[in-house]
Amino acid sequence: MKAVSEREVDAAAVDRIIDKHRDSPGNLLGIMEEVQELNRHNFLPRRTLEYIAESLGLPFSKVYSVATFYAFFNLKPQGEHSIIVCRGTACHTKGSKALLEHLEGSLGIKGAFDEGESYFTTPDNKFTVRTVACFGQCALAPVVVVDDKIHVHMNESKLARIVKELSRGGKKK
Ligand code: FES
């Protein structure tokens, strides 16, 4: 099958998903979820959102507002691995800013969060780094979640080891 670039839409695949949901109420969410899963970088490019809107006869603004309202929809490419750094007060006090800066430096995305961005993906799509307000594990600060696994009392050397292992193709833990 021909690879679909981020600028293109795999129209046939999107059409199949739309046809499957056509008669179900509230189908927009289901359609968008399945179309995102189809994307190898797990996101909904603008052109894809436009295609969904055109196909369903909906205004683009409606589809776009759904994509931005729900946190599980991504408007930018997602990395193969996800690293989430807690930036809540307890974690900040225990050094989460330094952990984030360490990640920015080691992954070559220095200053990525300076403009108030909440996540950033490395150019090679290997890692997506996010921040959150609190994981609810404040007593165990600083907390970092890597590929859905919670790491408590995180420090720079432990984080460096994890990133190194994943960069080498280590498995998700
Ligand atoms: S502030 Fe980080 S877990 Fe609550």
Tell me briefly what this model is.
The protein has 173 residues and is of the alpha+beta class. It has helices at residues 11-21, 27-38, 46-56, 60-69, 89-93, 96-106, 156-167, and strands at 81-86, 119-121, 127-132, 144-146, 149-151. It has two domains: 11-69, no CATH class; 81-167, 3-Layer(aba) Sandwich (Glutaredoxin), CATH 3.40.30.10.
Walk me through the structure.
The protein has 173 residues and is an alpha+beta fold. It is built from 7 helices and 5 strands; from the N terminus they run H-H-H-H-E-H-H-E-E-E-E-H. A 5-stranded mixed beta sheet has the order 2-3-1-4-5, covered by helices on one side. The chain is elongated. Residues 86, 88-91, 134-138, 141, 143 line the site of FE2/S2 (inorganic) cluster.
